[in-house]
């Protein structure tokens, strides 16, 4: 169209060089943007006194990070992952170069990280607040000496029901299954993690959710993939925020998320939460120090900071899970926090909860999870 | 050629760079940071295996076992679903985008054209994820769209589009529509209006002109648009993950899951290669069909535009 | 057929097309508008409207991670756009002016780059970076390389498309007039290709800003770009500060484009050319 004209223009006029040409302007602005951003970055955090946390998203009160910087010093950055597997994969691929100082893996994944030599041994003399943890949350099977991990919080799994749609009471995983395949069909969600999808069957039969028995796994696959999956509307690990939108009539859910959901609706009586019956799991997320991280000192300071009862309480208000600190339940009751029954469980219930394990059945459970995805999507 | 001439005239010996010299940096870049890394994936797919639940990958003897493991019925189901979404999505992008691009390039006055074109790109300047999240908000069962439709009486009860295949279809069409509009616009804009006028002067009606003059000349743009939409759409899994719930399972999700959740890099690599093969295979099929159609059309056309078309 | 009938049929078509155009615009802007509205969501979760307020903006201002991610995104975008434009421009010139047996191989690798899903790129690059070590542990370098792959292919194709439509006679004429190859390049070829080069530059810049998957895999602590941050939030809980940040980013982008457009306009370019440059056509 105007190409020849433009070409002629260039041949013809020398004074075009006097004007600001597009080329110069855009090149100039590119340099400006770049130097501007370098400056920003420099004054923002060229600080050697820093801390890089690799965490689940929105898992801690942002105000706590600010408080940490104010009270202790280091400026924190948070990077996000959305599954334990992703975190392990990232750390393993990086082989110490990831740049993260702290990571927050769940129970058995701590074991895996230890085995892969990706965690730094903690200097407990720098973490005096360790004594604030209740004994039953120390010395876990995946790290008996608490050399590599410290409890961040723990929780369990259950369901939340919209009683205006699901009128029958849900008192067991079997009831959950029946409602999911019945009145809530096409309107329910399950957690998007392999173990939990398989667990819907296992817990319904009161079996171990980390079984290695081939026959049990076959039965799980047959039920979940062939009968259950087509009724799933979504694989959603955070259905709590969907309550107010009425996205799901029935959801498999973690306790803290259920609490968050109930706090967000105007009519919480409409929804019924219950921890899994007859049995559920006990998962524990832990603070760990990444091997090869640049700020080991700051990492220790952070862990000590977060184990302080005040800080821990503030964080608990935000995420709704039990942080394992001594006396926190009394404190919560005194403060009049809502839905305490979703954070704190009686000893009998807790003693019945199953632990996680990464064993030979894991590959099978992952395959079942994947097949469930495909079957649900068909 | 001109350099040779200059050499002859000036009499000076000039050092000739090889023909591809200017492209050499790009060559090196691609080899170093695309070809070699991807060869790792091929390496893992054929020589890799997963020895135990804790290790991602180990190297063994070459085998096609990973491919066999990847080609499960689950995979085929998802493959079919992915192709459905991407083919329908590409077709919809074309059906929506072509009239729009035509309107913009030919019907709109030159003055307004540029502003409108700039407006089309504005959504593109918002992050892909954010745009998709915007749809998630809109399509919520009791969200803004539901309220609006309910208030005008078109909807009774909650809106049940989210977490279905329809939502994914809508999302991908939305996200890739600009990629269809732009090449189409460029192609239609370059068209010399004189050709269409000539056609009309020779007595052809609007539709005939379109079929025999405009469309064939715009074909490079059409092909570009189809490719620019189909290829990334087939590998996309984010739109499906955000809008589709359980119903939006695409092959990309499977690859992602196999690598990151199952931590089976050998099988994940095999699946990734299968995904590439899927895309290339579909393109080959359509290229063949396209060539066939083009030959048939060329034979039946009254006006031969093959002369002088760049 | 009488002219009046033809005319009114044409008018009807024009009207319908105009309506279609408006509908498409509404469609394109609908989610953007919603994000803008929900950036004022005063609730805790983005998806749940809880009254009008500036909570999201306040959270955005407090969130250092978000600030850092945006700075990283900008730095990555500038670097990778420059790389992609330089590599792509020269490659395109070679493709058009000096084709040969190598052309097919090069086009094949370009094709492969564009056909490969990003997830493959991301994972393979991560493996490669870790194996290489050294300077490849730096987050920004990783992003520059990762983002520049697809962009280089795109720039090459855009510039090639433009150059192949142009006559070589201008360059030959310059050669006849004793211009050295270098002068020929800077004074003829480059200016002729410039609109496409600029288009490629802008497109590479926006592609880099939007790049999610590769960023997610290769990024290092402290240099996580904005889309990777959003991606992480999606599988967890979305907060209003994401909508607020997004709105601010969009407004800043529009302001920057408007400023560029204004300067170009003042320097004499017609409005049409300005818009064409900015949109990369």
Explain this structure to me?
The complex is a heterotrimer of chains A (378), B (310) and C (281). By secondary structure, chain A is of the alpha/beta class. Chain A contains 14 helices and ten strands. Chain A is globular. Chain B contains 13 helices and two strands, in the order ααββααααααααααα. In chain B, α4 packs antiparallel against α10 and α12 runs antiparallel to α13. The longest helix of chain B has 36 residues. In chain B, 46% of the residues are buried. Chain C is an all-alpha fold. Chain C has a domain of 162 residues: MetI-like (MetI-like fold). The two termini of chain C are 38 Å apart. The mean pLDDT of chain C is 83. Chains in contact: A-B, A-C, B-C. Chains B and C meet through α1, α2, α4, α5 and α6 of B and α1, α3, α4, α5 and α6 of C.
Mean residue pLDDT of chain B: 83
What's the name of the CATH homologous superfamily of the domain at 64-225 in chain C?
MetI-like
- Helix and strand run of chain B: HHEEHHHHHHHHHHH
> At the third CATH level, what is the topology name of the domain at 64-225 in chain C?
MetI-like fold
Count of DSSP-assigned helices of chain B: 13
For the secondary structure, the number of strands of chain B is: 2
Please write the CATH class name of the domain at 64-225 in chain C. Answer: Mainly Alpha
**Strand order, largest beta sheet of chain B:** 1-2
